[in-house]
Amino acid sequence: MKAELRRVQKTGTSTLTVSLPKEWADSSNLKAGDQVSIAIQPDGTIILDTKTDRRREVLTKEIWTNGEESAEHLTRKLIGAYLVGYNVIAVRSKERMEPSTKGAVREFSRLAIGPEIVEETANSVIMHDLSDPVELPLEKCIRRMHLIVRSMHADAIEALRLEDKGLAEDVIDRDTDVDRLYWMAMKQNNLVARDRKMGERMGIDIFGSNDLMLVARSIERIGDHAVRIARNALISAEDEEKLEGADQLKSLSAEAMSVLEKGMEALFRKDIDKANAVIDEGGRVVRKCEKVGQGLHAQSSRDAIITNMVLDSIIRSTMYSVDIAEIAINGAIRNS
Question: What residue spans of 85-128 are helical by DSSP H?
C-alpha cells in the first residue's frame, strides 16, 4: 500500500493534529467522539488502533472437508490454522462426517496446547483455543523444550549403551511433548507479529520473539536427533552383541549437551563472552566427533553404520546449540 503524506496542523497554542484518511475511518466505522489507542513503537512509528482491547477478539477459521480427504491432509490444515492464531476452528462437511475425519480432529485437539472440542454434530466439529498466551509465553515454552530435549538426548544415548528398548521407545514418545511446545511457540510468535499489544502483554517485542522462535526451532531439531539416536538404539538392541564404542559416544554426547546448556545460559543472560566461548567449544566437539568417525574402518559394518549415524546426530545437535549461541550474541548486541 502506497504511503500517504499529510501535513501536521497546529490547533490552539500547542496542540498538533493530523487528519485521518476518510477511507480508513469509514472502513473502521470510526466517527467523531470514538476512542482509539495510540502506541509508540521502538522505531519511532505510531500504531493507531480502533480496537482498544483485543484480548477478547475472536478469530474464526472454517475448514471444509469431504470423505475423500485423508486424515493427514486435514491435520496439516488444522496445524496451519492453529499456528496462524485462529482461536476458533470449525471443521465442516456437507455430508455426514467420516469417523476418520472426526478422529483426526480429536487427535489434533489432544496434541496441540489449547484447542478443545466444544461442539460436535453429524457434519461439524468446532474447537475453541482456551489457552492464554500470557500464561505460557515464548520464553517459558523454550525453557520447557530445552529441559525435555536435554533429558531425551541423555536417555537416548543411555538406551544405546545399555540396549534398553523401553527407554528408547520412551524417548521417541517424548518427542510429542516437544512438538506441542514448538507449535505453541510458533503460534505465539505469529500473534506477536500480528498484534504488538500482545507482545506487550507477554513482555516481548517482535525482535525478541523472532530470536526465541529461531531458538525453539534449533531445540526442536535437537529433539529430532535424540529420536534418531533412540531409533538406532532399537536397531542395535536387535543384535546380541553390544555396540562397540558406546561409552565414547556417551562422552561425546555429554559434551554436546554441555554446549547446549551453556548456549541457553548465554541466551538468557545476554552474555556475549560466554556465547563466544560456547561457539568455540562447539567447534572442538565437532572436530572430536569427526576424528572418531574417521577411525570407524576398524569396526564391523553394523557397528560402523550405527556409530556413524549417532555421531552425525551428535554433530548436528552441537551445531544447533552453536546457532543458539550466535542468536544470543545478536540479541545481546541489539539490546546493548
Answer: 99-111
Q: How far apart are CA 63 and CA 69, in angstroms?
A: 12
The pLDDT tens digits for 8-53 are 777 777 777 877 777 777 777 777 777 777 766 666 677 777 665 5
CA 252 to chain centre: 27
Domain 138-335 indexed as CATH 1.20.58.220: yes
Confidence (pTM): 0.83
Q: What are phi and psi of 64, to 5 degrees?
A: -95, 140
Q: Whole-angstrom Cα distance, residue 97 to residue 121?
A: 9
**Based on the number of CB atoms within 10 Å of its own CB, is 45 exposed (0-12), middle (13-18) or buried (19 or more)?**
exposed
The CATH classification number of 9-49 equals 2.10.260
Q: How far is CA 209 from the centre of its chain?
A: 11
CB–CB of 178/145 below 8 Å?
yes
- Sign for the CA dihedral angle at 28, 32, 37, 43 comes to positive
**For the chain, how long is the longest CA-to-CA vector?**
90
Tell me the CATH number for domain 60-129.
3.30.110.60
Average pLDDT over residues 141-157: 97
Determine the Cα–Cα distance for residues 327 and 324; give it in Å rounded to an integer.
Answer: 5
CA distance 61 to 152: 35
Q: How many CB atoms lie within 10 A of CB 231?
A: 17
